[in-house]
Specification:
535 residues; Rossmann fold; 14 strands; 3 domains; 13% strand; 19 helices; RNA-binding; Isoleucyl-tRNA Synthetase, Domain 1; Gyrase A, domain 2; four-stranded antiparallel beta sheet; alpha/beta
RNA sequence: GCCCCUGUAGCUCAAUGGAUAGAGCAUCUGCCUUCUAAGCAGAAAAUACAGGUUCGAUUCCUGUCAGGGGCACCA
């Protein structure tokens, strides 16, 4: 990776300067990401830029510009010199690197060789990782709010996998018979109540009439109904949303397999359970949290207890990195679960991400649905690709306003088409090129226009995007990248005609086009959107 | 009252302790006899307010104001 190579070159130069006492970097850690090397969008600032000189200015008691000159000279004396066409010191002390065209051109053939593997890195080192998301209740259809965690979680898992984590996707089903929601659902199923009663649920109950009519227990009826809802939910998620989960874990199964009761016993053994007001509580005050009820006055376990059991189950299955994605209404639950993970002795990484509220601006989407906006009607309305894109644009912890009318209206001009259009154009060029006899030659030395180089730079950036996103989970970066990549291609398309009389140049540019196709496709795969050959 | 998230262009959203804060939509101006104009080139337009830390703050900290969410023997 070019960014990594430059970073190493910079660090090496600084180390070498420190070694022969040209500078002193007492108390400064080079490894802590201090030698920031960033991609430059502005070519006046080179291809990559480092602010290292300004970072270490204080520690070395030297002027940043002088330092930058020293580092620049050291790199130019070193083995990595051949990477660069030019190194410049600019502004308050930036070191701007212009990478050699030769390097870029060679990278094109690497992309052609790696194909769908291109962009994959191994910072995860195969660490057993789990992302749990959606986990909507089996009491009805998913709504537009669920869509956010759904697509976000799916894409995050894809990125982590690409980054070398052994990632599983998991859906937790809140179908415990002892839970309030199953009880409520049971009342509704037997016509004793109206909780969750949407048109969809009415229909489902109608379909289940033969089975339900024999039931007297609300709990059994609720569970029976929830399993039917779950079946629809699974089908919707897998077929319509195209999200494949590795595991669907049932809360009821955790009860059946004694995970809940054994977890209670473990907590009790640790002397963390106490009785108050006829209920049994988990002592969390030592962790600075409010104590929580585990067993109610009536003896039934709370959701909190089964959630502890569920997380214990995750740990027992050997996950070293666990990511939960919850809705904003669960954020108060985070400090408690953090405390619980400590109690359970978890040594791995545990992180809860909160998907902020999705608000509706455009009002009702369809009269038939009432005022509950289902994710299904949205996907039907704007299409899966556009829907996924729409959710991926925003950072997870910012609220998002969903203007339904706008989403429908704009679907023709949606950014997703802009990116897919680049892919379609490529396919069109490649289709036409079949009539042309290929000249066997490499791209080296032939791709020299700035729009060609800029395109190659963008292609190579996929690896950086994967690396950065696997580290900070800012999935919207991928959306941004896809736009930049498409822009670079569209510019190249306008500036440089691919198929011409010049056989060698045609071959070189065809290679670049094929490489772009690969990188675009890999980016689409990460986002879970389709790559159309024609539009 | 306490806790969490957010405040960037007319609208919907990005980004960043650094060098000119980016896109799309909307508005305006150019570009199709050549691989798809669902495109390209250009104009105009933004960091809520007040302090602080810093060589440098839109970013970090504090306060104010505004919006949203949470503070159950619900999940």
């Amino acid at each position: 990776m070019i960014r990594q190579e430059i970073k190493e070159a910079v660090c090496e130069a600084v180390r070498s300067l420190a070694k022969d006492k040209s500078i002193s970097i007492e108390g400064f850690s080079l490894t802590s990401g201090a030698a920031a090397v960033e991609f430059s969008k502005d070519r006046d600032h080179g291809d990559y830029a480092s602010n290292i000189a300004m970072q270490i200015a204080q520690a070395t008691k030297k002027n940043p510009k002088d330092l930058a000159d020293l580092i620049k000279a050291r790199i130019e004396d070193g083995p990595s010199k051949k990477l660069f066409e030019k190194i410049e010191v600019a502004g308050p002390g930036f070191i701007n690197f212009r990478v050699s065209k030769n390097y870029f051109q060679k990278e094109v053939s690497r992309i052609l060789k790696e194909k769908d593997k291109f962009g994959a890195i191994n910072i995860g080192k195969n660490l057993k990782t789990q992302v749990e998301f959606i986990s909507s209740n089996p009491s009805g259809q998913m709504h537009v709010g669920n869509g956010r965690g759904a697509f976000y979680g799916d894409v995050l898992a894809r990125i982590l996998t690409k980054a070398g984590y052994k990632t599983d996707k998991e859906f937790y089903i809140n179908d415990a018979k002892v839970s309030k929601q199953i009880q409520e659902l049971g009342k509704t199923a037997l016509g004793h109540g109206e909780s969750y009663l949407t048109p969809y649920l009415k229909e489902t109950i109608e379909k289940l009439k033969p089975g339900l009519s024999k039931m007297v227990s609300e709990t059994e009826a609720g569970y029976y109904l929830s399993q039917a809802v779950l079946k629809d939910l699974k089908k919707f998620v897998e077929k319509k949303l195209d999200i494949k989960f590795d595991y669907w874990i049932s809360e009821e199964d955790l009860y059946k397999q004694s995970w809940v009761i054994s977890t209670y016993d473990i907590l009790k053994k640790q002397k963390l359970v106490f009785e108050k007001d006829d209920a049994y509580w988990l002592k969390l005050s030592d962790a600075g949290q409010k104590d929580e009820v585990l067993l109610r006055k009536n003896g039934s376990p709370t959701y909190f207890l089964s959630d502890i059991a569920y997380h214990r189950y995750k740990i027992e299955r050997g996950y070293k990195k666990i990511i939960d994605i919850w809705g904003a209404d669960h954020q108060g639950h985070i400090p408690r679960m953090n405390a619980v993970m400590k109690i359970l002795g978890y040594k791995g990484e545990y992180e809860v991400l909160i998907s902020q509220i999705v608000r509706l601006k455009g009002g009702k989407m369809s009269k038939r649905e009432g005022n509950i906006i289902t994710l299904e009607s949205l996907v039907d309305e704007v299409g899966l690709d556009a829907a996924r894109f729409f959710y991926l644009v925003k950072s997870l912890n910012a609220q998002m306003e969903f203007d339904v009318e706008l989403a429908k209206e704009k679907s023709e001009k949606s950014p997703v088409f802009y990116v897919q259009y680049a892919y379609a154009r490529i396919s069109s060029i490649l289709a036409k090129s079949k009539a042309v006899k290929p000249a066997a030659s490499s791209a080296t030395g032939l791709l020299v226009f700035s729009s060609e180089i800029e395109l190659i730079k963008e292609l190579l950036r996929l690896q950086e995007v994967v690396e950065d996103t696997a580290a900070d989970y800012q999935v919207q970066r991928l959306f941004q990248y896809s736009q930049d990549l498409a822009t670079s291609f569209h510019k190249f398309y306008c500036d440089c005609r691919v198929i011409t009389e010049d056989k060698k140049l045609t071959a070189a540019r065809l290679q670049l086009v094929m490489a772009t196709k690969i990188v675009l496709k890999n980016t689409f795969d990460l986002m879970g959107i389709s790559a159309p050959e024609k539009m």
